[in-house]
Amino acid sequence: MLLIARDKTKPLEKLKWSKNGLKLLDKAVAAAPEDSLIRLLRGKAVFKLPEKHFRRTQTVIEDYTFLIDQEMRQEGTLEPEKYSQVVYDLGEAYHRIGRNKDAEMCWKRLENQTQDPEMQQLLSTNLQSLEGKPEIEDNKTESLSSMLVGAALAIGNAFSRWVEKEKKKEKAALRRKRRKNKKSRR
């Protein structure tokens, strides 16, 4: 559903498919909270969603922290490349919500572990970008345009639900009318 959402062009359709896909992933994690594959799938899917519209970065943090803890307890649960990507993305998630100290810890940890020169360069650049920033930044202030987009999405969702209810009412009325006509013909 999330892949379908990615390819939709209409924002409300994108949102509808995304929310349905997220519900399924959340149910899968609730049913099997210790399953690292499900956590990895949900974490990767949610990581790509914009925080300002979905507010799911905390989910990424929970899933990736679980995966890293599991790898530390039982080495080999993740391939080295996937593990590095999870640690890097966890740092990005922390940075996204203004938890600079936590992002720095992730990236420094990875910088000490990786031998990949491209990754080391990227980490060095990211760490430099954090210099002089507070440990925690308040990223909760939204621009007027992002608030308007959020309001438009909420209104669009409410309107879509209303339209669906009206369609169901019309269908039910049409079925009743057909049944009534059948009875009157007998």
UniProtKB/TrEMBL annotation:
<dbReference type="InterPro" id="IPR011990">
    <property type="entry name" value="TPR-like_helical_dom_sf"/>
</dbReference>
<protein>
    <recommendedName>
        <fullName>Tetratricopeptide repeat protein</fullName>
    </recommendedName>
</protein>
<feature type="region of interest" description="Disordered">
    <location>
        <begin position="164"/>
        <end position="186"/>
    </location>
</feature>
<feature type="compositionally biased region" description="Basic residues">
    <location>
        <begin position="174"/>
        <end position="186"/>
    </location>
</feature>
<feature type="compositionally biased region" description="Basic and acidic residues">
    <location>
        <begin position="164"/>
        <end position="173"/>
    </location>
</feature>
